[in-house]
Amino acid sequence: MSETEIRDDRAAGRLEAIGDGGEVVGHIEYFVLESPQRALVPVHTLVEPAHEGKGIAGSLARELYGIAAREGIVVAPLCPYVVKWAARHPDEAPAADPALLHAAMEWLRAHPGRF
After folding, report:
1. DSSP state letter for 78
2. Which whole number is the average pLDDT over 56-85?
3. What is the pTM of this model?
4. The 3-state secondary structure of 19-55, one letter per residue
5. In terms of C-beta density within 10 A (0-12 exposed, 13-18 middle, 19 or more buried), how is residue 12 classed?
6. Which is higher by pLDDT, 104 or 1?
7. What percent of the chain is modeled with pLDDT above 70?
8. Residue 22 falls in which region: left (phi positive, over 0), alpha (psi -120 to 50) or beta
9. How would you classify the pairing of strands 39-47 and 74-75?
10. Strands 5-9 and 14-18, sheet pairing
11. 97 pLDDT higher than 90
12. Sign of CA dihedral 86, 40, 17, 69
């Protein structure tokens, strides 16, 4: 994935993988939870079919955890892919508190049109 750049569009709630042609080849949709503590909450990961199998989704998940670490906050994953990636990379992806995951699910239920 050396020709792919990852950029965070915080306003849109998207972490995007940009291919060498400038097109978005994959993304993670997320929101920022403020309470009970600040957290990045990934909800959905998508890689365009022509770019599957290139490690893009894993690079996006790794960068999401990297952003959280740099900001001193946690990740509360609701996205099934990110949950699986985190389980395989516990050294890079600290487990989220169950109460925080519950709060993230409640936020998502309260904002049904967001994702």
Report:
1. -
2. 97
3. 0.93
4. CCCCCEEEEEEEEEECCCCCEEEEEEEEECHHHCCCC
5. exposed
6. 104
7. 97
8. left
9. parallel
10. antiparallel
11. yes
12. negative
